[in-house]
Amino acid sequence: METRRTFVRGLGVAAGVALAGCSSSGGSESSGDGDSGGGSDGSDGGDTETSGGGGGSEWTQTSTVEMTDELAYEPKKIQVEAGTTVTFENVGSIGHTVTAYEDRIPDGATYFASGGFDSQQAAKDGYSNGTEGNIPEGESYEVTLETTGTYEYYCIPHEMNGMVGQIKVV
What we know:
Number of strands: 10
Oligomer: single chain
């Protein structure tokens, strides 16, 4: 009996450690940089530009975002010129989506989501009704962004795991 309790106790500890590891993504959706939903004019204050990384409040100048098996967009925050086509590449084995938050894109900007949906609700419904909009391993999704400002997006099945990203169009 003692070994069963020891075994169950060990499982509880292992599960707690695993969950703690999953919930700490090194950064959070609200990184404290004042850019949570506003910023449609593209001005977010003290953000810096960089050519590497993607964590914290740094913006990476690139037009390619990788979707990984770590349930992350890499880099998480990118900056591009207006008219740039941004490519989202699935470099892992798990399917992902690219879905704009409808209320977190610049005023007048065209809505985007993998699967070609014209609203956030349509994208969510399409995914739940047969994984429409899913980008499988080795495939990609492209969107051309014309309107300046900050766009926020997420992966439908992995949003709760912190799979979110931002694009600043200047």
